[in-house]
Amino acid sequence: MRVVVRLGLAGALTLAALAPLPARAQQAVPPVTIITVDVQQILRDSLVAKDVQSQMDRRTERYTKQVTDQETDLQKTQNELEHERTVLAPDAFNARMRDFQQRYDALDNRVQATRQALQQSYNDAMTKVENTALQIIADIAAERKANLVVAKAAVLFEAQDLDITQDVIKRLDAKLQKVELAPPQVPPPGSPVGGAPSPPPPILH
């Protein structure tokens, strides 16, 4: 006697799931080899990144001193205008006011332009550092035959030997000792500068 078993759709799918995959399908899924890396730590702790930050700090400090000296001079002019309001003729006082306002606006625009140019120089230098670090990460991945690199911030738990951050920092320190900050490309006076203008100083009350 022959027994016929009828399977519903769910049963057929279950059997299909349990059936071994064809050899071609098995070969199409390579084993996963994972490494993790903390790029932010590399861009913070590597020697070249620290040097770029040090260059930026020195430039910012030097430029801040220059701006402070010019602001002091403008403050002196403002104080003089306050005292001269009652002794100067209206036309003379207004002319002095216009000259002061032009000097203030020029300094304000220059400060904004230079701040943006300094930031761009820093960003360009750090991009070179990051690109070199990414190439080193790719090299290590190839050496370990890793086919998946995961950001360390996205990992909750990992085996100790999966993190390559310190190895990348070590190689980066040996490969790239210094990246010079390019001179800031400050637009000439009168050029438009991004961002909202600062309000004028309070002179008249």
CATH architecture: 2-Layer Sandwich
Structural class: mainly alpha
Overall spatial form: rod-shaped
* Annotation field: number of helices: 6
Biggest sheet strand line-up? 1-2
How many discrete structural domains? 1
The secondary-structure element order is HHEHHHEH
For the termini, the CA-CA separation is 111 Å
Number of beta strands:
2
Largest sheet: 2 strands, parallel
Q: What is the CATH third-level topology name?
A: Protein Binding, DinI Protein, Chain A
Q: What descriptive keywords fit this protein?
A:
205 residues, mainly alpha, Protein Binding, DinI Protein, Chain A, two-stranded parallel sheet, 6 helices, 2 strands, rod-shaped, disordered N terminus
Written overview of the protein:
The chain has 6 helices and 2 strands; from the N terminus they run H-H-E-H-H-H-E-H. With 205 residues, it is mainly alpha-helical. The chain has a single domain (31-175), classed as Protein Binding, DinI Protein, Chain A. It has a two-stranded parallel sheet with strand order 1-2. Helix 4 runs antiparallel to helix 5 and helix 5 crosses helix 6 (165-175). The chain is rod-shaped. The model is unreliable at 1-19 and 192-205 (pLDDT under 50).
Topology:
Blueprint: H1 9-18, H2 23-27, E1 34-37, H3 39-45, H4 47-84, H5 90-143, E2 148-151, H6 165-175
Helix pairs in contact: 3-6, 4-5, 5-6
